[in-house]
Amino acid sequence: MASVQPILHLKKSKQGKYPIVIRITHNRKSIYIYSGQYLDKKYWDKSKKIVKKSYSNSVRLNNFIASKILMINNLIFEQQNNGKNELNLDKIKKLIKQKGNTNSFYNFADAYFLSLENNKKFSRVNSERPLLNRIKKFHKKVDLEFSEITPLFLEKFVASIKRKGTIGERSIANNLVFIRTLFNKAIAEDLVKEESYPFGKGSAKIKITFPESIKIGLTVEEIQNIKNLDLKEERFVHARNIWLFSFYFAGMRIGDVLQIKWSDIKDNRLYYRMNKNSKTISLKIPEKALPIIGCNRQKVGSFLMFFFKWTKSRL
Q1: C-alpha 216 chain-centroid distance
Q2: Per-residue pLDDT tens digits for 92-110
């Protein structure tokens, strides 16, 4: 019987985390199956081979790892119980890959969300989970295989949403983009064949179109009115100041604002990494932002002190 154990791989990713892999050992030789999940080394219990409880998402991640191990052990048991020739590592790896090709869209989506949570991309999770729930509400079955998501399936899905009339064209497009994103990831991981990809050009494929939108920004007068609001409660003052902080820094995303640290401010510039695409940004601190930060060119004051203390409690 092959030995199946989860380990933390020694090769660190660009983000400074280590991949969780499943090591399968048979006849003194080993192969490694990547789980697609990454973890900071301090959260891995090497002796117990589990994620430590100190990690905020430990229960879900341990359950995910356990499900992978159970799947692999079941495959090995089935092959040996059928009286076939003794398994070799190549055979085991092939069986796992074949099993992976039948992974459900729902299971793959759960792994995708787990990966986002591990990378602290909570805003993405909050915005995209409702998209998955909308698909489940339409499909009305316990599971959904990638192979079932055909152009016809997507056409019926879109038609169903339009009949209800509860969301607009842009939201419908976002739902299709979510499905397309998971398809692309599954294809990249060799879980789905490219021929089954339902998106693209031509009558037999689904083309995602985004409706024209008219974006109307606030006027200078409206911004000034927000700035001059006479707010009595401190929480509203901070909420207003955080909004202005984002506005003055070129519409900085709130998810990025909440992760600002003292070390991000150097020589009157703000340096941070965008949560959405990991791109590093450097912005000069605007003059209008200085009163909010509570500083001049040499001093940082009370608002930023509160701001960092507040955001730290949220992370």
Answers
A1: 30
A2: 777 776 665 456 788 788 8
Structure tokens at 236: 């509203």
Would you tell me how many other CB atoms lie within 10 Å of the CB of residue 147?
14
Residue 71 vs residues 34, 64, 99, 145, 191: alpha-carbon distances, Å: 14, 11, 8, 17, 15
Q: What own/partner pairs with CB < 8 Å and gap ≥ 24 does 116-124 have?
A: 117/57, 117/60, 118/17, 118/37, 118/38, 118/39, 118/57, 118/61, 119/15, 119/38, 120/259, 120/275, 120/315, 121/255, 121/275, 122/255, 123/253, 123/254, 123/255, 123/275, 124/276
Mean pLDDT of the chain: 81
- What is the pTM (predicted TM-score) of this model? 0.54
pLDDT for res 57: 83
**Looking at per-residue confidence, does 85 or 25 come out higher?**
25
* CA distance to 1, 232, 248, per residue, from 227 (Å): 69, 14, 12
Domain boundaries, the chain: 3-100, 106-196, 220-314
Contact 51, 28 (CB under 8 A): no
